[in-house]
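Reference record
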Amino acid sequence: MKEPQERTATSLGHTAVSDPNSTDCRAVSGILARIGDKWSVLIISRLGEGPRRFNEIKRMIGGISQRMLTLTLRNLERDGLVSRKVTPTVPPRVDYALTDLGRDLLLPVQALGAWAIQHTPCIEAARARFDASDPAETPQQERVSAG
């Protein structure tokens, strides 16, 4: 039986998994999954323009279902990125806005969106080349076949 390998500090400023001061990868993974979700990115971008009502957000983001918008807003609120303000009118008015933490996330989200827009033609071309190639010749297939 193999002995477990000792984990040490890695290059580029990464810390060892066993380092008591390092952040748990699972926690970071959960946060990245939330803020990297396509609906979260779109909602954060739209709320970066100012507070919005539920149906306003839904109209601005084509293709999102009411259920998915509700779940995503609730999760963003839970994570402290979005605030929900209910005004007691008939019917009640509910406004969603970015919190300070959400506004802090806005710049990286906008940069990621700008990168995606700028590189869409390159990515589509790469996909077309990949899809046109013989799947048996792809590096992934070669690694699987060689194993």
Observations:
- Residues 100-132 form the longest helix (33 residues).
